[in-house]
Design goal:
Blueprint (H helix, E strand, L loop, with lengths): L2 E3 L5 E6 L9 E7 L2 E7 L17 H5 L9 E3 L8 E3 L2 H19 L4 E5 L14 H7 L3 E3 L5 H11 L15 E5 L3 H4 L4 H9 L3 E5 L5 H5 L2 E3 L6 H14 L5 H7 E2 L1 H7 L5 H8 L3 H13 L3 E5 L9 H14 L9 E3 L10 H5 L10 E3 L3 H5 L11 E5 L3 H4 L3 H8 L5 E6 L11 E4 L8 E3 L6 E5 L12 H11 L11 H8 L12 H7 L1 E3 L23 E2 L45 H6 L2 E4 L15 H7 L3 E4 L1 H6 L7 E6 L2 E9 L7 E3 L36 E6 L1
Parallel strand pairs: 7-16, 8-15, 9-10, 9-13, 10-11, 12-22, 13-14, 16-17, 17-18, 23-27, 24-26
Antiparallel strand pairs: 1-2, 2-3, 3-4, 5-6, 5-18, 19-20, 20-21, 23-28, 25-26, 25-28
The structure holds ligand MGD (2 copies) and molybdenum atom (MO).
One ligand MGD binds next to α16 and β17.
């Protein structure tokens, strides 16, 4: 371990932020007398540049929080009551193993369902940590399409799994579009690169229904109705094609399907798009002309955009734009979606999809409420649930049904957590998990090109264990013999990367221990123009304006499960980017729209990280009570004033929040941030109570932004 000790006896350990966020900050953990005193950003890190954020500036408060779960516990009160008694690890493991053995004997292993996501993002303790165990056990597969699987499927269908632009190269851009990316809250460490370009004369355009912090700093904010951006992008293509703003040479050499696309986009005139999007036709024309003629032009696309009926096609359309105008030719041009693809991660070795027994059923994680209330027609109903790294009661839809399911007396639920979350309250057995300073891990990034090593700073607190240790203990309790299940964390780190890959050239564990991070072996951001000469990782090697892969091909992101990468729920996939009307809109569902005339979105909170920190004093003070932003026009039509308690509801459920009357929300659209806890809410519900379980068009993405509601004064 590389440590520096100061004269005061304070040691600095090189760590990394554990959170599911594109920035993956390099952290300096200050330890004195065996305790973490402070955490700071590492100033030498080229991307995160010495800053942390409103969530992690005081990470030690999370570590030493009085409500940390530090011992295994068994439920003593009713489900949901939060009453537990302390037990030993042996008791906990014996009880879990005994229950599972009975279940397996009576109903088979498919009656067991794991549920997890990215509570921590490390390769050792994160996404895949429990997969080999549950796959070997033969449990029902939990399909994780929490995040970006719709957007990534669409992106890959178009340009393949390319890292795309280096975020640091945005400083060289002459025009930047933040398209559905709330950068100052969700990807804050990229902002200095955007700001630098802006200072050098680049035009910054934000396309978002919300006047976000970034929109307030932009040269132009294009306010668009949610879920309609495909029409905008296709109309931009219409203008680019018809005004001959095309980079003909680039299109001829490095794209497929241009002639068909050209004919296809004729129907999407700026006037058509204006009608659908609410953006003026002249604004669309000017945007298309400026985008085409100002090179290098960069697009940063966020994740939030995938959450409506046509979210996938929307990303297809936006991802097609750079090739048409030759934006990829220079550093600072192209699109940035998910640079995760730059990391040569040994996904197959981490998931062990090969352990999944033939014919194992799959439950998509947006359907947890339905699965637990016997509404999915599962041949083997779920008896046992094991939740770690996730807080479904806040992040998954169908909250009322989820509570109903979790309350089932015959359901045996185990939850591994830092805190007594809303979900943890429903556990039969609760297991304590370590925080990032108590564990070692290797971190990829989905927002920059640096691999980061988190070194353990202090021993585990109480009886908390790392997720990797948890699964070693479970393997032992279930008598697994394969040594694969007993590898230590060092071995897991070694096994998580393809170290021989060219991108890993020059990177070693020794080096990472000394510096904390390493840039993948790629050209510098000043020269990196990955597709100046084509070379797209698609079947044709070109940008597939007309897709040849039915649904993203071999979509190897962590959601991938063997034999289950089709993602379509029936019906062919559009090969050309096509506009789809939202599920919940006046055009498609007029009766619904008459009862529930407002669109609701529940995007990320500035001070919470998904639902993390929703229980912490500092961040709750920063965020305030759960609020709903409503435009003054909509507020006055309903007699709603600032800070009034309102009920937001639709046919699925209701929650209460404080009204924030502001033109940051556009008329017709209300915004209520994600992350607030149910047990701290005004009326025992959060926005998830209203969210639909319908899938978007690609990647089984959710449709949370395609959601009609009404707001009434209490
Ligand atoms: N502070 C903070 N940072 C986070 C997180 C957090 O919870 N808090 N979560 C992390 C995670 S898991 C993720 S996936 C990322 C997500 O990062 P982002 O994608 O940036 O975040 P979102 O809030 O999901 O949505 C971004 C923006 O998209 C807009 N938007 C929604 N629908 C549409 C649409 O149809 N069209 C257009 N043009 N815009 C639309 C929203 O108004 C919002 O401003 O953030 C990560 N970073
Ligand atoms: N309405 C709405 N819903 C959304 C979204 C949205 O924008 N709006 N965004 C979606 C997206 S993009 C995402 S990524 C998902 C996020 O979904 P989740 O990843 O489930 O979200 P979190 O709230 O971060 O829950 C993670 C939990 O893991 C716990 N945890 C942290 N570290 C550890 C650890 O080391 N071990 C264990 N055992 N537990 C740990 C934390 O305390 C926390 O309770 O939510 C999705 N749901
Ligand atoms: Mo996410």
């Amino acid at each position: 371990m590389n440590t520096q000790t100061s004269a005061e006896g304070e040691t600095t350990i090189l760590g990394a932020c554990p959170h599911d966020c594109p920035d993956t900050c390099s952290m300096l953990v200050k330890v004195k007398d065996g305790k973490v005193k402070a955490v700071q950003g590492n100033p030498s890190h080229p991307f995160t540049q010495g800053r942390l954020c409103a969530k992690t500036n005081h990470y030690q408060e999370r570590v030493y929080h009085a409500e940390r779960l530090l011992y295994p516990m068994r439920r003593t009160g009713a489900k949901g009551s939060g009453q537990f008694e302390r037990i030993t690890w042996d008791e906990a493991l014996n009880e879990i193993a005994a229950r599972w053995r009975t279940t397996i004997a009576e109903a088979g292993p498919r009656a067991i369902l794991p549920y997890s996501y990215l509570g921590t993002q490390g390769l050792v303790n994160g996404l895949t940590v429990g997969d080999p165990f549950f796959n070997k056990l033969g449990a029902t597969v939990s399909e994780r399409t929490f995040c970006d699987s719709g957007a990534s499927t669409a992106y890959i269908m178009t340009v393949g799994p390319t890292p795309g632009m280096d975020p640091e190269s945005f400083q060289h851009s002459k025009l930047i579009i933040l398209w559905a990316c709330n950068m100052l809250s969700t990807n804050a460490h990229m902002w200095p690169f955007v700001e630098k370009a802006q200072r050098n004369g680049a035009k910054l355009i934000v396309i978002d229904p919300v006047r976000t912090r970034g929109a307030q700093q932009a040269d132009q904010h294009i306010r668009i109705k949610p879920g309609t951006d495909t029409a905008l992008a296709l109309a931009m293509m219409n203008v680019i094609v018809n005004e001959d703003l095309i980079d003909h040479d680039y299109v001829a050499q490095y794209t497929t399907g241009f002639d068909e696309l050209k004919a296809h986009v004729q129907q999407y005139t700026p006037e058509f798009a204006a009608e659908v999007t609410g953006v003026d036709a002249e604004v669309i024309r000017t945007l298309a002309r400026e985008y085409a003629s100002t090179q290098p032009a960069a697009i940063r696309i966020g994740v939030g955009i995938e959450r409506s009926a046509g979210g996938g096609q929307l990303v297809r359309a936006v991802t097609s734009l750079p090739a048409l105008v030759g934006a990829w030719r220079k550093p600072g041009g192209g699109i940035l979606q998910l640079p995760l693809w730059a990391f040569p991660i040994n996904w197959d070795g981490l998931h062990r999809a090969d352990f999944i027994p033939e014919g194992t059923p799959v439950v998509n994680q947006w359907h947890l409420g339905r699965a637990l209330t016997h509404d999915l027609g599962l041949e083997t109903p779920i008896r046992d649930l094991f939740i770690y790294n996730s807080n479904p009661l806040v992040v998954a839809p169908d909250q009322a049904r989820l509570i109903e399911g979790l309350s089932r007396e015959d359901l045996f639920t185990v939850v591994s957590e830092h805190f007594m979350t809303d979900t943890a309250r429903y556990a039969d057995i609760l297991l304590p998990a370590t925080t990032q300073v108590e564990q070692a891990d290797l971190m990829f990034s989905w927002g920059h090109f640096y691999l980061t090593l988190n070194q353990q700073a202090v021993p585990p607190i109480g009886e908390a264990v790392t997720n990797s240790e948890l699964f070693r203990r479970l393997a032992r309790a279930m008598d697994f013999e394969d040594p694969f299940f007993y590898r230590d964390d060092e071995e897991l780190m070694q096994a998580s990367m393809l170290w021989d890959h060219p991108a890993m050239q020059g990177i070693t564990m020794e080096g990472l221990r000394a510096t904390g991070y390493a840039r993948l072996n790629m050209p510098s951001a000043d020269t990196y123009a990955p597709h100046a000469q084509g070379g797209f990782p698609t079947p044709s090697g070109k940008v597939e304006l007309k897709a040849s892969m039915a649904a993203g091909g071999n979509f190897v992101l962590p959601v991938f499960r063997q034999g289950y990468n089709g993602f379509q729920d029936g019906g062919p996939v559009d090969a050309l980017p096509t506009f789809h009307v939202r599920h919940e809109s006046a055009a498609k569902a007029p009766a619904l729209a008459a009862r529930f005339p407002l669109s609701m979105m529940s995007p990320k909170s500035h001070a919470f990280l998904n639902s993390n920190y929703g229980n912490m004093r500092r961040q709750v003070a920063h965020q305030g009570q759960q609020y709903v932003m409503i435009n003054p026009v909509d507020a006055s039509a309903r007699g709603i004033q600032q800070d009034a308690v309102v009920t937001v509801q639709n046919g699925r459920g209701a929650f209460k929040a404080l009204a924030r009357v502001t033109d940051e929300a556009m008329a017709g659209v209300v915004i209520t941030p994600l992350g607030y806890w149910v047990d701290r809410s005004i009326a025992g519900a959060t926005p998830a109570a209203l969210n639909p379980t319908a899938f978007a068009d690609l990647g089984r993405a959710p449709t949370f932004s395609d959601n009609l509601v009404e707001v009434t004064l209490d």
